[in-house]
């Protein structure tokens, strides 16, 4: 009983918490890459986007997703309509037309434009040197996201140069999530 009460107390004060993705800013991830190269996984969301909220609730709370992302990537959470300044490839991206207090959609951040995103959420992957690999649009369940996470972490994407090779890869992929 005492152990249970201690656990509940520690949980209440935050000493014991559920594992979560170690989110950071893009600038923090790019700086971390210089010290220890690792690919970047970026979740581009907006505050009004329902599927973005579902991604947080259903996918980014999955223990297998959390463990894999934390081990293999620097994880970046980026508001595609926010005000964060991002310095990428010697250029600083901003959102100068952002309207404070606006309800719903706002103006698109210049970095989201530079990535040529087609919608929200978008999951964006970068190489260890910060070079863009690919953006994957739309909501993904843990099982749907797994193939992308593993394909890119293992550099398998470099061998997938045709629609046929991608289809064969999907057909042979064995999910463990």
Walkthrough of the structure:
With 177 residues, the protein is of the alpha/beta class. The chain has a single domain (18-172), classed as Glutaredoxin, CATH 3.40.30.10. 39% of the residues lie in helices and 19% in strands. The protein contains seven helices and seven strands. The strands form two sheets. It has a five-stranded mixed beta sheet, with helices on both faces. Strands 4-5 form a two-stranded antiparallel ribbon. A hairpin with a 2-residue loop joins β4 (86-88) and β5 (91-93).
How does the SSE layout of this entry go?
Elements (H helix, E strand, L loop, with lengths): L1 H12 L9 E2 L1 H10 L3 E7 L4 H10 L3 H10 E7 L6 E3 L2 E3 L16 H5 L7 E5 L5 E6 L4 H12 L9 H10 L5
Parallel strand pairs: 1-3, 2-3
Antiparallel strand pairs: 2-6, 4-5, 6-7
Helix pairs in contact: 4-6
Q: What is the structure about, briefly put?
A:
With 177 residues, the chain is an alpha/beta fold. Helices cover 39% and strands 19% of the residues.
Could you tell me the strand content as a percent range? 15-25%
Task: Find the count of extended strands (DSSP E, 2+ residues).
Answer: 7
The second-level CATH architecture is 3-Layer(aba) Sandwich
Distance between the termini: 34 Å
Give the helix/strand class. alpha/beta
Unreliable spans: 4-17
Number of domains: 1
Radius of gyration: 18 Å
How are helices and strands ordered from N to C?
Answer: HEHEHHEEEHEEHH
Features:
single chain, 177 residues, alpha/beta, Glutaredoxin, 5-stranded mixed beta sheet, two-stranded antiparallel sheet, 7 helices, 7 strands
């Amino acid at each position: 009983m005492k152990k249970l009460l201690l656990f509940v107390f520690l949980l209440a004060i935050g000493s014991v918490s559920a594992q979560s993705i170690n989110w950071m800013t893009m600038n923090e991830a790019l700086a971390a890459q210089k010290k220890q190269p690792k690919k970047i996984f970026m979740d581009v969301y907006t505050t009004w986007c329902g599927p973005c909220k579902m991604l947080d609730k259903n996918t980014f709370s999955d223990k297998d997703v959390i463990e894999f992302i934390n081990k293999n990537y620097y994880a970046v959470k980026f508001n595609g309509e926010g005000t964060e300044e991002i310095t990428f490839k010697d250029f600083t991206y901003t959102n100068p037309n952002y309207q404070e207090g606006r309800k719903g959609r706002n103006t698109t951040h210049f970095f989201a434009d530079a990535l040529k995103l087609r919608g929200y959420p978008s999951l964006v992957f970068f190489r260890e040197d910060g070079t863009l690999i690919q953006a994957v649009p739309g909501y993904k369940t843990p099982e749907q996201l797994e193939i992308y996470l593993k394909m890119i972490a293992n550099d398998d994407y470099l061998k997938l140069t045709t629609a046929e090779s991608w289809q064969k890869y999907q057909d042979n992929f064995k999910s463990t999530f």
